[in-house]
Amino acid sequence: MNNTLLLAATFALAVGTSYVVAQTASPTHPANTPPTQTPPPTDTPMSPRSNMPMTGPQSMTHPSSPPDFGELDPTGLGYITQQKAMSNQWLGAHFAGCDTNHNGQVTREEFMKCSAGPSQP
Questions:
Q1: Measured between alpha carbons, how far is residue 78 from residues 36, 93, 112 in Å?
Q2: How far apart are CA 25 and CA 27, in angstroms?
Q3: What is the residue range of 102's domain?
Q4: Could you give the number of structural domains in the chain?
């Protein structure tokens, strides 16, 4: 009887130990590994709205020609901020060159000089 009890206790201990080891061991099965993620490409930076279709008057303007200043300044402030300039493809590309005093705004005078200048493609 003692041998049977000792054998049962040893078996129970072995089963319990193997269960604990199986629970704490790191999984090696491919199904338990997380899927690999491919990072987004970094070679072509995109603006948040670059995939949106253009609408309004600027969509009809060829990107290589400057728009009408009044289209970009409909409220008549007399200047265009860089944020507003990004709504137009041409001025967005030429803003740094048009902002001759580097104050973050393109005035009507700066715009007229820039849009008539030889730097136009």
A1: 53, 20, 12
A2: 6
A3: 63-116
A4: 1
